[in-house]
Design brief:
Mean pLDDT: 92
Structural class: mainly beta
Low-confidence stretches: none
Strand content: 35-45%
Shape: globular
Bound molecules: zinc ion
Helix content: under 10%
Strand order of the largest sheet: 5-6-7-9-8
Number of strands: 9
Number of helices: 0
Radius of gyration: 16 Å
Amino acid sequence: MPNQKPVDANLFDWPASSPRLWGSRCALCGNVSFPVAQRCSRCSHDEQDRFHLSTEGILWSWTVQRFPPASPPFPPSDGNPFEPFTLGYVELPGEVRVISRLFYNAQQTPHIGQNLKLAFEQLYCDADGTEIIGYGFTPHGDTK
Ligand SMILES: [Zn+2]
């Protein structure tokens, strides 16, 4: 099995039997942040409690990114043409909205209000063959 590592070690645990995203909750006002914050964006308090975010959410909005992401942190083009990808703003009810890739197959179309669940996929391979794993959301259950 090839080596794998997360695209960012602070976003989620990898490898893990049930990987989940890490968020933080302000100890003073309860505001939830993703990624984990050092200081609350609402009240500036610096005591933040790290916790695992929900694995289920609702599609709040979405778009298609038609230009390559910044390099670094993403690798430069290796000569392959850029493939547009779908980005969603996913509401984790009672927690926070997360910007995320949407992992959809050719038969699936994003709909605002759609039920989603957390998923993980290989984004690319390092020069040494290490698989770089990213998080995303995929349709789940009754998608209205
Ligand atoms: Zn706060």
